[in-house]
Amino acid sequence: MKKTTLLFAIILLAAAGVKAQTYETAVGAKFYAGNGTYGGLNIRHSTSEHTALEGSLLFQSGAIGLEGLYQYQGPITGAEGLQYFVGGGGFLGFGTGKGNNSTAFALRLTGGVDYKFADAPIDVSLGFDPFFYLTPATGSNLTLGIGLRYVLR
User: Fold this and answer.
1) Residues in the chain with pLDDT < 50?
2) pLDDT on residue 20
3) Residue 1 has what DSSP assignment?
């Protein structure tokens, strides 16, 4: 179902021919929905035409986390302002609830699409974002990442 939704969104945006442009830095919010829900503050900065860094301060009930991602990005032909991205990074989480003082570390993969509206300083992203936990126990978590950011420049 998630793959179908992502494919439909890409086709819809490409067919609409909506004009858009790329950006350098944007700040906003990012949410992960799936087996475990996180949400929080997010910043994405393009370091070159084809690379970007993304960081998040994420919150979950009884936990807080930091995320850092390195992404390769490129335009999708025929859909100005729409880019694909793939990459990876890490996640460091800290338990904050009563009796929960554990620390978690996860390797991260990411891949999806990013769209900057031409007539507004708004950027949206949709990605498939698995977490691969290494501590305190091993496991994985498959999530759908949704970002909404304000473009600074």
Assistant:
1) 1-21
2) 35
3) -
DSSP state letters, 33-71: EESS-EEEEEEEEE-SSSEEEEEEEEEETTEEEEEEEEE
Structure tokens at 135: 């501590």
Distance of CA 14 to the CA centre of its chain: 21
Question: What is the reported pTM?
Answer: 0.80
Sequence-ordered list of residues with C-beta below 8 angstroms from that of 75, at least 6 positions apart, any chain: 22, 82, 83
- How far, in Å, are 62, 64, 81, 98 from residue 101 at the CA level? 10, 11, 43, 8
pLDDT value at residue 14: 41
CA–CA gap between residue 64 and residue 130 (Å, rounded): 18
